[in-house]
Amino acid sequence: MLALRLLATVWSPTTHGVPINDLNVKLLSRFHTMLYRLTNGRIGRRLVDNDMLLLTTKGHKTGNEHTVPLLYLRDGGRLVVIASYGGRPSHPQWYRNLLADPIASVQILGDTFPVRATTMTAAERSDWWQKVVDAYADYAEYQSHTEREIPLVWLDR
């Protein structure tokens, strides 16, 4: 549990924990992924009061698999993930990978299954943005730090 508290403390750039830069994000992501996989989500399934999944994409340059932990929301049988990258100017690598190949896999707890990713339309995003911010308020701050519109992504089985 101490590890999860540490993750929650440093994960957000609005905290006064470890500076959030690309290296720290990568290290925290790998640590979170390792704990989640080793415990089938018993450790790492929730972070900052939200459910987490593991998303595995195929690298658009290398073809190698890459796995990241992401906060997600549900809409019936559909999943929604947020390509915020903490409000950085560019999209996260996992999102760029999905643009090149929308087929990926998701692990939720011990269940792993294939998904197809689709970026929400402008109208869908407009409908969903407040739900996303209600789930994790820092997303509003992330959006204010970047000129790009943070994509919201459907993951469908």
TrEMBL record:
SUPFAM superfamilies to which the protein is assigned, alphabetical: FMN-binding split barrel
Record field: catalytic activity: oxidized coenzyme F420-(gamma-L-Glu)(n) + a quinol + H(+) = reduced coenzyme F420-(gamma-L-Glu)(n) + a quinone
GO molecular function: coenzyme F420 binding; oxidoreductase activity
GO cellular component labels: plasma membrane
Pfam family name, one: F420H2_quin_red
Family: Belongs to the F420H(2)-dependent quinone reductase family.
NCBIfam families noted in UniProt: hi_GC_TIGR00026
PANTHER family: DEAZAFLAVIN-DEPENDENT NITROREDUCTASE, F420H(2)-DEPENDENT QUINONE REDUCTASE RV1261C
Name of the protein: AclJ
